[in-house]
Write a structure and sequence with these properties.
530 residues, alpha+beta, Glutathione S-transferase Yfyf (Class Pi), Chain A, domain 2, 3 domains, seven-stranded mixed β-barrel, 20 helices, 7 strands, 8% strand, disordered C terminus, VPS9 domain-containing protein
Length: 530
C-alpha cells in the first residue's frame, strides 16, 4: 500500500496540519541559519513522519497528543538522526530505528517501507515502522521487534557493578583534561616557549580589554570563539611555518580575510592551506569538525600533523586559562539570583509532595532516591572545563534514570512476591492466575525536568547558576545543529527546572506546624512493604 493513504498520516494531515507546519518551519529556520543570509533560495521545509503499522496499533489506545508528538520528527544535520517533538532522539541504522536520549528504555524497531511525499510545500519523509515508539507497544510488536527490545533493556545496576560504573564515569571526566594537557605538552615541546608566550599574550589581551556582561551570552561566546581561532592559528603557524606562507595553498586570501574580520590582533601573518581549514572550522564554531578541515586541504597533500588535535587542545588550553576570569564574573554577577534560587530550592526540598504534584510526576517515581545525582550536581564546580561540566551533568541524568529503573524494579519484585505469598496462603491451585507482568514506566521530558529539580533541591544548588552560565556560553559556540546533542538537551532541561524553581510560589505552612514531606518521609509513604 502507498504510505500516502496510511490512516495515521491522513489523521495528521487533517487534524494536526498546524503541528506539521510548525515542525517544518523549525527545520527551514535551522537550514537558513546554517546556509547564511547571503543565500537567496528558500530553505527546504521537511519533516520526518514515523507511521506505525496498523497491526501493531491494534489493542493500543494511547493519548493522541502523545502518539502525534512521538512520531513527528525534525531532521538534524546528521542524516541518520532525528529528534521528535517530545525532545527524544532517534537514530537510523540501515533498516532499523534505534532509541536515543529521552526514552525510558532502549529499543530497536524495524523500518518496513519508506516514501517521500510532498504536501503543500512540505516534504514528508515517511517511514512505516513495525511498532509505535511507545512504552506499552512491545506486546503489539512483531516477535523480532519485541525480542530486540527486551534484549536491549537495561537492568538495574547495583553492588560492584555500580561501583565500577562510577569509577568509569569519573575516569572519563578526568580523561578530558588529561588528553588536552598531553596534546598541549606535545606542541609546546615541539614549538618551544614561544608558542605559550604568544597564547598568553592573546589571552591577556582578552582579559584586559573585554568587558563581560550578563545578557550578552552569545556575544561572549563569539568573542571566545575568535580567541580560540587566533590562538589555534598561532600554534599551527609555529608548528608548521612552511605551511603558513601565502604559497601554501589557494585558501590563503580567505583565511586572511577571516583573521581580519575577527577584529582581534592578527599579527601572526596570513594563514593558508591547512591553516585556512582550521581557521574556517574553528571560526565557524566547529572546533572538533573533521569534515570541514579535511574538505579544504589542498589536493595531493596529506593531513597535517594532528590539526584537529591541536585545535581541540588549544580550545581546552584557552578555557583553562580564562576559567578564573569567567568563573569570578559569573559568581559575582549572579550572586543575588543565586541566593534567591537557594532559598527556593530549600523550600522545595522541605515540600517535595507539592513539587511532585505541581509537576505531575508519576506516583511510581515519587519514592526514588536522588542523592547520588544531587551529589554530582554539587561536583560541577570541581571541574574547570565546560566539557567536563556538561559530561558531569549527563552523568547526573544517567544516575536519575538508573535510580528510577532500580526503584521500579524493586517495587515490581515486591508486588510479585506479595501476590505469590497471598496465593500460597490462600492455597490456590496451580491454575490460579499469576500476577500480570509489570509494564515499563516511561520517563518523559516533563518527568525529567521535575526529577532534575528534585536533585537540585537535594543538592542545595550551591553555585549552580554560575556553572549553568559557563556551560551555556560554551554551548553557544557550537553550530546550530549541535543543539540536538545529548549534553545540550540535558542543559536545556536543567534550565527549565531552575527557571520553574525561581518563579514558583511555595504554599504557606500552617502556623505552628513545621514543613514536612522531605525525601525520607516521601520514600516511606511510597515504598510498599514486602
Amino acid at each position: 500500500m502507498a504510505l500516502g493513504s496510511h490512516p495515521f498520516l491522513q489523521r495528521l494531515l487533517h487534524r494536526h496540519e498546524r503541528l506539521l507546519s510548525a515542525a517544518a518551519g523549525a527545520t527551514a529556520a535551522s537550514e537558513g541559519d546554517k546556509k547564511g543570509s547571503s543565500v537567496s533560495a528558500p530553505a527546504e521545509r521537511s519533516v520526518v513522519v514515523l507511521l506505525p503499522s496498523e497491526d501493531s496499533m491494534r489493542g493500543l489506545n494511547p493519548a493522541e497528543q502523545l502518539l502525534v508528538e512521538t512520531h513527528i520528527c525534525t531532521p538534524t544535520a546528521t542524516a541518520s538522526q532525528f529528534v521528535n517533538l517530545r525532545g527524544q532522539g532517534i537514530h537510523r541504522e540501515d533498516r532499523t530505528l534505534v532509541s536515543g536520549f529521552g526514552f525510558s528504555s532502549s529499543f530497536r524497531v524495524e523500518i518496513l517501507a519508506e516514501e517521500v511525499i510532498y504536501n503543500d510545500g512540505v516534504v514528508l519523509q515517511c517511514f512505516l515502522i513495525a511498532a509505535p515508539l511507545l512504552p506499552n507497544a512491545a506486546a503489539a510488536a512483531p516477535a523480532s521487534s519485541t525480542a530486540s527490545a527486551r534484549g536491549n533493556a537495561i537492568e538495574p545496576t547495583t553492588g560492584p557493578d555500580q561501583a565500577r560504573a562510577t569509577a568509569e564515569e569519573r575516569e572519563n571526566l578526568e580523561k578530558i583534561e588529561r588528553a588536552i594537557l598531553a596534546e598541549t605538552s606535545r606542541w609546546r615541546a615541539k614549538a618551544g616557549a614561544a608558542v605559550e608566550n604568544q597564547l598568553d599574550e592573546e589571552i591577556r589581551f582578552f582579559k584586559e580589554t573585554y568587558v563581560l556582561a550578563l545578557g550578552c551570552d552569545a556575544e561572549i561566546a563569539l568573542r571566545l570563539r575568535e580567541l580560540v581561532t587566533l590562538c589555534t592559528q598561532r600554534v599551527l603557524g609555529l608548528l608548521a611555518p612552511a605551511l603558513a606562507s601565502p604559497q601554501g595553498g589557494s585558501n590563503g586570501g580567505a583565511a586572511t580575510g577571516l583573521v581580519g574580520a575577527l577584529g582581534g590582533r592578527s599579527s601572526a601573518g596570513p594563514a593558508a592551506g591547512p591553516l585556512a581549514a582550521v581557521a574556517a572550522a574553528v571560526g565557524g564554531g566547529r572546533f572538533l569538525g573533521r569534515g570541514a578541515a579535511a574538505s579544504q586541504r589542498p589536493e595531493g597533500q596529506g593531513p597535517p600533523a594532528s590539526n584537529e588535535g591541536v585545535a581541540t587542545a588549544v580550545e581546552g588550553f584557552v578555557f583553562l586559562r580564562v576559567h578564573d576570569t569567567l568563573w569570578t564574573f559569573a559568581v559575582k554577577a549572579l550572586s543575588k539570583r543565586q541566593a534567591r534560587l537557594e532559598a527556593k530550592l530549600k523550600g522545595l526540598r522541605e515540600n517535595l509532595p507539592f513539587l511532585y504534584d505541581r509537576l505531575q510526576v508519576k506516583p511510581l517515581l515519587r519514592g526514588v532516591s536522588f542523592h547520588a545525582s544531587a551529589e554530582l550536581l554539587n561536583q560541577l564546580s570541581a571541574w574547570k572545563l565546560p566539557q567536563q561540566k556538561t559530561a558531569c551533568l549527563a552523568w547526573a541524568v544517567r544516575n536519575l534514570q538508573r535510580a528510577c529503573r532500580s526503584h521500579v524494579h524493586q517495587l515490581h519484585a515486591r508486588q510479585q512476591r506479595r501476590a505469590e505469598l497471598e496465593r500460597k496462603q490462600a492455597r490456590l491451585g496451580a491454575a490460579a492466575a499469576l500476577p500480570s507482568s509489570p509494564q515499563p514506566v516511561e520517563i518523559t521530558v516533563d518527568d525529567l525536568v521535575a526529577l532534575l529539580l528534585v536533585a537540585a533541591a537535594l543538592s542545595g544548588g550551591r553555585q549552580l547558576l554560575a556553572n549553568v552560565w559557563l556551560m551555556t556560553v560554551f554551548n553557544l559556540q557550537k553550530p546550530r545543529e549541535a543543539q540536538f546533542d545529548e549534553s545540550s538537551f540535558y542543559l536545556t532541561t536543567l534550565h527549565s527546572a531552575l527557571s520553574f524553581a525561581l518563579v514558583v510560589d511555595l504554599p504557606e505552612a500552617p502556623s505552628g506546624l513545621p514543613r514536612t514531606g522531605g525525601e525520607p518521609a516521601l520514600r516511606a509513604a511510597h515504598l510498599e512493604r514486602p
